[in-house]
Design goal:
About 20% of the residues lie in helices and about 35% in strands. By secondary structure, it is of the alpha+beta class. The protein has a twelve-stranded antiparallel sheet with strand order 1-2-4-5-6-3-9-12-11-10-8-7.
């Protein structure tokens, strides 16, 4: 694994401090002012999965981001065992910092079964080898390819425009965002790890999809953004260290909130994950009123 991917896998290896109580941390060199949403969601899912028999895979999660996380202190995850049925298991996880809940997640696990099957087809797009990395594209555009883009544990390759491109050229504005992604290294064959890393990665580009529809980008003090809630459904097994196509769109934005949806396909065209996220997106002038 690359150093960046190894670090993220380490973040997901929670310390168990008591039955159904786990402790996580943020990266030591974290530059974000608050805990990355994908990190807390991935860690919470690890905590839930550690209390479930290995023959039951995650089939869905529903989460709410309640308060910004503090990157300087540990995160404590408490797991409630809501149900252990014959085919389904349900867990609720609360992430706590400074004595307050900052995040809550409900996850459902299901034994493998057979039944009816159908799925939408994967769109026809250029393959990952035909698409530039984010860092390469930024350099080609004469923009700073910052450390985060170069050292990302997830290799991201945007088939369409980046938000900064749509901001500079309004003819590129779109409510559709298609991204190839893959963990930047080889991972163990641990299904829970792959699901948790996909949960981590899914929070990286969804709100970009809302910004693309308005020709706005991050990092220029125009907009303040934060994840509000997040839901995922895992339809089939997959590996996140193999190329996955993340097809996203934003059907609506209203009242300082934007909704983004996504479908994740393997390179062979299997639909394996569905995602929905709503985010807070305040124009900076309005955001000042809430400080």
């Amino acid at each position: 694994m690359t150093k960046a991917l190894d670090a993220v896998v380490g973040l997901l290896d929670l310390e168990q401090i008591e039955q159904d109580i786990f402790r996580g941390r943020s990266p030591e060199d974290e530059r974000r002012q608050r805990v990355f949403g994908g990190q807390v969601a991935g860690q919470a899912l690890v905590a839930a999965g550690r209390t479930v028999p290995a023959d039951r895979g995650v089939h869905s999660l529903h989460a709410y981001f309640i308060r910004p996380g503090d990157t300087a202190v540990p995160l404590v995850y408490t797991v409630e065992r809501l149900r252990d049925g014959r085919s389904f298991t349900t867990r609720r996880v609360t992430a706590i910092q400074h004595g307050k809940a900052i995040f809550t997640l409900s996850a459902s696990f299901h034994i493998p079964e057979t039944g009816y099957e159908h799925a939408d087809a994967m769109p026809d797009v250029p393959g990952p080898d035909e698409v530039e990395t984010v860092a390469d594209r930024l350099r080609r555009l004469g923009l700073p390819a910052d450390d985060e883009a170069r050292q990302n544990p997830i290799d991201l390759r945007h088939v369409g425009p980046l938000p900064i491109e749509a901001e500079r050229n309004r003819s590129l504005i779109t409510s559709r965002n298609v991204v190839w992604l893959k963990a930047d290294g080889e991972l163990p064959a641990d299904p829970l790890l792959h699901v948790c890393l996909m949960t981590y990665a899914s929070d990286m580009t969804l709100l970009d999809t809302v910004l693309l529809a308005h020709g706005v980008s991050w990092g220029n003090d125009i907009v303040y953004g934060a994840s509000l809630d997040h839901a995922m459904w895992f339809h089939r097994p997959f590996r996140v260290d193999r190329w996955l196509l993340f097809v996203q769109d934003s059907p609506v934005a209203s009242r300082a909130r934007g909704l983004a949806r996504g479908e994740v396909y393997t390179q062979q065209g299997e639909l394996v994950v569905s995602v929905v996220q709503e985010g807070l997106l305040r124009p900076r002038s309005a955001a000042e009123r809430f400080r």
